[in-house]
Amino acid sequence: MLIAGPDTRVVELRVHGVQGTTPQTLVDAVAAVDVAGDGLGRIVRPADRLRRPAPGPVLQTEGRPIPRVVEGYLWGGMTSGGVAKATWALLFPFSIANVAHWMLPPVPERNLPAHLLGIGLRSLLRVFALLLTALLVAQVSVVSLDLLAAQCLRPGVECLTSIPADVRQFPWFRTSFGLLPIIALIAVMRRISHVDWRIERKEIADAEDKDGRPASGLPGAHVATDPDTPALRTLHVVAALSVACLIALGGPLQQLTATGGMGVAITTAWVVSLVFVGLSVLGVLLLDDPTGGAPHRGGRWLRAALGRRPRRVLLVLSGLLVLTTVGLQEQLPTRVPGADVTVQVVALMMAFVLVLFGLMLVPAALLARKTWASLPRELRPWAGGWFSAPVLAIAGLLGGGFGAGVALPVRKALGSELHLPVGYDYITLLWGVAGALGLLTTFAVASFTGAVRWRAFRKGKEWAREASLLHSGRMRDLRAARRAWWWARWERNHGHHMILIIASVLVVGAVLASVLRVRNVPLASWTFPFSAFGVGVLGLLAVSLLRAVYLAARQPESGRRLGIIADIAQFWPREAHPIVPPCYALKVVPELVSRVQDHLRDPGTRVVLCGHSQGSLLVAVAAARLLEDLPAHDRERIGLLTAGSQLQWAYPRAFPAVVPHASLARLAGGLDGRWRSLCRGTDPLGGAVMTWRRQVFDGMLLGVGYRPDGSEGALAPALRGPTGALVLGGDHWLPDPQRGPFPGRRWRSGVSAHSDYTSDPEWDRAVAIAAGLLEVDAPESPPLPFARKPETRSRDALGGS
Q1: Residues 6+ apart with CB under 8 A from 606
Q2: What residues form the membrane-spanning segments (predicted)?
Q3: Residue 205 pLDDT
Q4: Position 289 confidence tier, pLDDT thresholds 50, 70, 90
Q5: Per residue in 471-483, is it b (16+ CB within 10 Å) or e — as a string?
Q6: Which of 265 and 520 is assigned the larger pLDDT?
Q7: Is 687 exposed, middle or buried (0-12, 13-18, 19+ CB in 10 A)?
Q8: Which helix (H) or strand (E) holds 726?
Q9: Which residues does residue 174 pair with via DSSP β-bridges, in sequence order?
Q10: Most exposed: 245, 467, 505, 684, by fewest CB within 10 Å?
Q11: What is the chain's alpha carbon radius of gyration, rounded to the nearest angstrom?
Q12: Which helix (H) or strand (E) holds 720?
């Protein structure tokens, strides 16, 4: 531990979690002011009455008070606020498919079968993502080209009577009217895929773009931008335009018929559309170099063929194909059969790819099992490393459900005499069966959970004994804590099971509807209630998302609340699907690293990176980058503090290749005891990070965890801090409700769960330990005086000690 000198000061750099926050809340001040940043990534400090940056509260250590500067990094503006960012929720199926890529199991070194399976899985993911884009275009074509342009605007139909009959008969009017929304949608998707966050300082961006850096084994080492993203973007746009042309020309299975030169032109355009779709599928299948670290292999010729100039040529040719398609259809027919056929063909291809992906994922997960076989069960990846398959299934079914959910209300609004494709009857059946199964499953899970909870609280079953240690002598707090501990533990242990149940329910409904459609079995009368229920479910799905976007325009706060979806999905760079919102981690992490390096230029400064919830992942990746770049004498002056973190129970289990357990152990060893984690048993979203297999024995909290040298093993019994917290290894277990109130300190009453970790006085003690100013096993400090006498008796029947 470095000895503190007379010029020692601590910079506490805080990073918030999902849904954003206000600058004042982040730095615990009544006013805050920006001191750096570009408006999207903001560095703020507390402010005085003249709105000047003010110093933070001093940090009390055993020897003397140490000056402290409190800063906060605000990144919520990158994912929430405003209509433009709220509309990103409509791309949620694309984002889920992109996240599924990062959930793939790790590829063991020097294992050729695992390496080949990894290449195949990544290729299938990109093909599935391309089909998801094609499905969206096909479903929009059902609404705009078939339902609206071909049927509603047909001359003589009493639909949208404000459009005169002469206009309806005008050549190419209905074709242009039907294709224009599709082209606009593709243009918007292309524009979204071009949006990227600009890093404030050019030298940071240059450092982040360096190729050839060896894998460090630290958390987030693979989180980097993909150099193949521009090529993937172009292939998606070309495929989307070609699918739109195929639909207008009759569909992928049969073209429109005509005589003479018109027939030859239609055949030529139809063949060119199929060729463009095939080239797009082949391109996304072969592009596989996520980091760009090996451009000499794996398709060097393909990257050359998809350079900037060839991509522009492809886009121009696709645009000419669309214009040709419009010119070939002077008048639309009464129905557009290609829309229904295309939706069904794309859906069947997605099902085939998904089944193949799931089958290939089984041996890949088994080969990767040796990387986690020695870990306790509670630390192993979810579903044995197979979790990517159900997530991908949810992405595909949500994508199909949203399109159908939009088509059904539009048909109802335009008039009941209009007809949707026959396949939509089976889609409503799919969601009706899935909705019914979902209700039954929800009832069964709720009943089982209620029974288990009743048994736990009414039959005298003893559990959550840690709460008894934290709230010894405070019976009322103990009773509230035990109930909160139970629910929080249930959510952490079974949250991924709920995702598996949702995926299973949707897949069962999809299989039933697909079998009936492939066999062309007419729907029996007993299916009508399920179809009606499915219409309601699909309508609710579409209306909920569209209403959220509408409210974001009228109420900006709604847009911020909607950002919780984007905050979780947008951490991951564009890899499988290029048409997703930009990854904020590629901006936040390098700017945090740069800010820390700026502070470390002062030899007396020590920096503690503090992250709450999702912010804990950001600061962990930033700390890993600092350990890679800084010299040894500077690494000793950085510390890490996480609060309400998912770095043990969620991220290593959902993303075993990106945030593996071994990388966290290596990070803990690199920080040499300066990684502290604040956790509450009442927090359903956060949990322990540094310890596991905890148990209470003879009034002591024991467990296994990371040691300061990075090794793992049994730890010394937990020590009690001056505010009642139990410190086991690197985890600080906070009493919730808090002890106190304490004179001169902010206090929060009731169960805090996932919020307001900075209100606990243990926060300051953890910062001092992370800064290397205080030993964990130092002689126990005297407890802080209470502002009121703590409760020692209670009439509660719970009892306990």
Answers
A1: 2, 8, 9, 10, 11, 637, 638, 639, 771, 772, 773
A2: 124-150, 170-189, 235-253, 265-287, 313-329, 341-368, 389-408, 428-452, 498-518, 530-553
A3: 46
A4: low
A5: bbebbebbbbbbb
A6: 265
A7: buried
A8: strand 726-728
A9: none
A10: 684
A11: 29
A12: strand 719-720
For residues 769 and 721, give the distance between their C-alpha atoms in angstroms, rounded to a whole number. 12
**Residue 737 and residue 729: Cα distance in Å, rounded?**
22
Lowest mean pLDDT among 51-65, 242-256, 715-729: 51-65
Q: What is the pLDDT of residue 458?
A: 67
Report the distance separating Cα 227 and Cα 203, nearest Å.
19
d(CA 677, CA 609): 12
CA torsion sign for 490, 493, 495, 498 is negative
Between the CA atoms of 231, 235, 237 and 242, what dihedral angle is there, to the nearest 10 degrees?
A: 160
Q: Quick one: which of 67, 2, 18, 12 has its CA closest to 44?
A: 12
pLDDT digit string, tens, across residues 732-786: 999 999 887 877 778 888 899 998 999 998 999 999 999 999 887 654 455 656 5
- Average pLDDT over the chain, rounded to an integer: 84
* CATH code for residues 9-79+581-690+750-771: 3.40.50
Mean pLDDT of 490-496: 88
The Cα-based distances of 304 to 18, 308, 439, 673 in angstroms read: 40, 9, 52, 48
Which DSSP symbol is given to 467? H
Residue 475: pLDDT over 50: yes
Contact 357, 119 (CB under 8 A): no
Phi, psi torsion values for 705, nearest 5 degrees: -175, -170
Residue boundaries of the structural domains of the chain: 9-79+581-690+750-771, 83-196+230-423, 436-553
Average pLDDT rounded to a whole number, residues 664-672? 92
Phi-psi region of 168 (alpha: psi -120 to 50; beta: other; left: phi over 0): alpha
**pLDDT at site 208:** 47
CB within 8 Å of 89: residues ≥ 6 apart = 545, 548, 549, 562, 565, 566
Complete DSSP assignment for 67-94: -EEEEEEE-GGGTSSSHHHHGGGGGHHH
> What phi and psi values does residue 206 have, to the nearest 5 degrees?
-65, -40
Give the integer Cα–Cα distance in Å for 137 and 247.
10
- For every residue of 604-652, DSSP letters joined together read TEEEEEEEETHHHHHHHHHHHHHHHHS-HHHHTTEEEEEES--TTTTHH
Q: How many CA atoms lie within 13 A of 778 on its CB side?
A: 16
Token look-up 């490393």 returns: 385
Q: What are the tens digits of pLDDT across the range 648-661?
A: 999 999 999 999 99
Q: Of 235, 232, 242, whose CA–CA distance to 179 is shortest?
A: 242
The one-character DSSP state at 199 is P
Q: What are the tokens at 366?
A: 């088994």
How far is residue 294 from each of residues 111, 210, 218, 288, measured CA to CA in Å? 18, 13, 21, 10
> Residue 578 burial (CB < 10 Å; 0-12/13-18/19+)?
buried
- Give the highest mean pLDDT range of 217-221, 408-412, 646-650: 646-650
Coil, helix or strand at residue 602: coil
Q: How far is CA 655 from CA 219, 567, 710, in A?
A: 11, 16, 21
Decide: 255 and 268 in contact? Cβ < 8 Å: no
Q: Average pLDDT in the 567-589 region? A: 87
Task: Tell me the HSE value of 511 on the side-chain side, using a 13 A CA sphere.
Answer: 9
Closest by CA to 406, choosing from 427, 391, 422, 436, is 427
Residue 211 has what pLDDT?
A: 43
350: its two tokens: 């997605």
pLDDT surpasses 60 at 200: no
Give the count of beta carbons closer than 10 Å to the beta carbon of residue 450: 10
- Rounded to whole angstroms, the Cα distance separating 43 from 34 reads 6
275 three-state secondary structure: helix
